[in-house]
Amino acid sequence: MSTTRIGAQFEKYVRWLLHNEGLKTRRNVMFHKGERIRQVDVDYKSGLIFRKHVIVECKYVRPGTSVDFYASYVQLGEAILFTRSDEGILATNVGISHREEKEDRYHIRIYDRDVLMKLRYGRTTHLDSLVRDMEREIRQMPYNAGKDHAFIHEYV
Predict the structure, then answer these.
(1) Is 20's pLDDT higher than 90?
(2) pTM of the predicted model, to two decimals?
(3) Residue 61 in contact with residue 94, Cβ under 8 Å?
(4) 21 burial level (CB within 10 Å; 0-12, 13-18, 19+)
(5) How far apart are CA 75 and CA 70, in angstroms?
(6) Are 108 and 73 in contact (CB under 8 A)?
(7) SS3 readout for 113-154
(8) What's the order of all strands across the beta sheet hosting 25-33?
(9) How many domains is the chain partitioned into structurally?
(10) Rounded to whole angstroms, how far apart are CA atoms 153 and 130?
(11) Domain containing residue 23: CATH number
(12) Surface-to-core class of residue 74, CB atoms within 10 Å of its CB (0-12 exposed, 13-18 middle, 19+ buried)
């Protein structure tokens, strides 16, 4: 399975989890500022009166490996500044060590495997069967090469 395909399926999975939390999300948003552009995997606006724009950077890596946290953080930080978002989330299918400390230090939210499992299953137990179920659900997300790589365009 290609990395492009599984990455798109992971983005759809994260969007689906956030949608189940009652958020109106968008996927594959291309922000334009003059000649410059920046793609965001998932975004949403929360709040009724004081709307907060949140962007989500999704990083799928093969289970058993680790995400390059600092490179992903820099990419998320650049996207937050470019889109003038209020908050950023780094979502990944693997665990991030010292997640809470990194969230406090870098002023972002991290939705690693444990957080995603809690959103999906209501618990963070490290049961191998739940991790396998989550990976199977990601791979079963529908994929359409033409539609999954189309963008929503927004000008900032």
Answers:
(1) yes
(2) 0.91
(3) yes
(4) exposed
(5) 9
(6) yes
(7) HHHHHHHHHCCCCCCHHHHHHHHHHHHCCCCCHHHHCCCEEE
(8) 109-111, 87-92, 52-59, 36-46, 25-33, 152-155
(9) 1
(10) 36
(11) 3.40.1350.10
(12) exposed
Please state, as a whole number, how many other Cβ atoms lie within 10 Å of the Cβ of residue 15.
23
CA 131 – CA 116 distance, rounded (Å): 10
**Tokens encoding 24:** 């109106």
Can you spell out the DSSP letters for the chain? --HHHHHHHHHHHHHHHHHHTT--EEEEEEEEETTEEEEEEEEEEE-SSS-EEEEEEEE---TTS---HHHHHHHHHHHHHHHT-SEEEEEESS--TTHHHHHHHHT-EEE-HHHHHHHHHS-----HHHHHHHHHHHHTS---HHHHT--EEEE-
Q: 60-95 pLDDT, tens per residue?
A: 999 888 999 999 999 999 999 999 999 999 999 999
CB 120 within 8 A of CB 15: no
Nearest to 55 by CA among 86, 93, 95: 86
Map tokens 């689906």 to a residue.
Answer: 16
Give the structural domain span for 8: 3-155
- pLDDT of residue 125 exceeding 70: no
